[in-house]
Amino acid sequence: MQRLDKYLADAGTGSRSEVKNIIRKGRVTVGGRKETMPDAKVGTGQQVCVDGRPVTKAPEHVYYLMNKPAGVITATEDRAERTVLDILPDDLPYITPARRKKLFPVGRLDKDTEGLLLITDDGALAHRLLSPKHHVEKEYYARIEGKLCQDAERRFELGMDIGDGDKTLPAKLIRISDSEIRVILVEGRFHQVKRMVSACGAEVVYLKRVRMGDLTLPQSLSAGMCGYYSRP
Ligand code: URA
Question: What is the value of pTM for the model shown?
Fold first, then answer.
């Protein structure tokens, strides 16, 4: 048994005080009967409706896909900079204030990097996507200046020294044109794409992550926008 106001707030109907108002106005039924007391109890299996529409219980975990814009940092909070959590909209499904506190971005993108960023409260999934053991592919589109060395593809494939002590794991470089490339990595070192491109003689001037494992950035999601995914 759960309090009706908590049930509705957890389901994303509104904040605790908003749902109390909705209940008191007589807009809520529990098991087909109107209920106007916020502290009424909801039993398992009882259907709760608001304005006649069934309320579905919030899922245990939520998954928001953001097209991170340049200029925000990949962190949950920061004193000086705007973070990806700061720009996460309030009208996404199931995004209650309590849920918001548990959300975190999966992996890091530099402040000036755009593209696919999963924001979730599912620690196990984040671990699976980020653990070096699992070799989940991360695919990037980059615009570059300067000229990549002739054997850059081979150097990406074989792994290279970018100053970390150990060589990078095998990666893929695909040239789209003289100034555009795609890079596929299975690890996530600090500034990795920029440093690998630099080690091959060119400079990244624009970087966007377009894929992480099976998750591809939808074309319809422009920079700064977010979508909800029931399960990645
Ligand atoms: N590689 C980089 O250099 N920057 C990113 O943000 C991600 C990968």
Answer: 0.83
